[in-house]
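User: I've been trying to design a sequence by hand for this structure and keep getting stuck. Would you show me what you'd pick, starting by listing the structure so we're on the same page?

Assistant: Good idea, let's start from the same input. This is the structure you sent:
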């Protein structure tokens, strides 16, 4: 497989569909996983990932080469997710989705430890901004600045979201452990 830069160049200058397909193959797993985490739905994540890559193909000429291509794709994915939220006027109702999310985790993460499942359940209780910020920085290794660029938020907002999110995770997991020990 060619390197990413030459694939981008071919897709940009020649509108080479094969080159763009190779870029999709290279990044679709991480984009889809990011969207699953945000949307809490595998089917929706698939739809949003497809929408992300269609949008990326249409807007490929806007990729200036500043920053990573993957970061650019994450920004598009996040924007697609937020557009979905706005257009459906649906906000995450954690209490209603908690049991459904638990079933999804059981069905799709059979090989995860109980601590990993607890963390996934706790992550679902964060708001979208906290979830996305923590996922990008701690799950995918992006810097705070890269996450801010992807999410189109001020750097301080991303840092605050991570701090608040981590604190919520600590509280949720501590409470769960205390409840398990009491029973």
């Amino acid at each position: 497989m060619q390197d990413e830069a030459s694939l981008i160049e071919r897709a940009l200058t020649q509108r080479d569909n094969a080159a763009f397909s190779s870029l999709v193959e290279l990044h679709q797993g991480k984009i889809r996983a990011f969207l699953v985490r945000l949307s809490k739905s595998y089917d929706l994540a698939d739809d949003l990932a497809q929408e992300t890559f269609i949008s990326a193909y249409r807007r490929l000429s806007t990729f200036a080469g500043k920053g990573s291509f993957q970061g650019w794709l994450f920004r598009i994915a996040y924007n697609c997710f937020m557009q979905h939220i706005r257009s459906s006027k649906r906000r995450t109702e954690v209490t209603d989705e908690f049991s459904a999310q638990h079933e999804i985790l059981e069905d799709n993460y059979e090989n995860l430890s109980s601590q990993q499942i607890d963390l996934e359940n706790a992550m679902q209780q964060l708001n979208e901004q906290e979830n996305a910020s923590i996922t990008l920085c701690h799950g995918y290794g992006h810097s705070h600045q890269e996450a801010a660029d992807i999410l189109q938020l001020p750097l301080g907002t991303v840092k605050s979201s991570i701090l608040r999110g981590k604190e919520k995770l600590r509280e949720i997991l501590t409470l769960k452990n205390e409840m398990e020990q009491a029973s």
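That's my pick for every position. To get oriented when you compare it with your attempt: The chain has a mean pLDDT of 85. Residues 1-92 form a domain with the Rna Polymerase Sigma Factor; Chain: A fold (CATH 1.10.1740.10).
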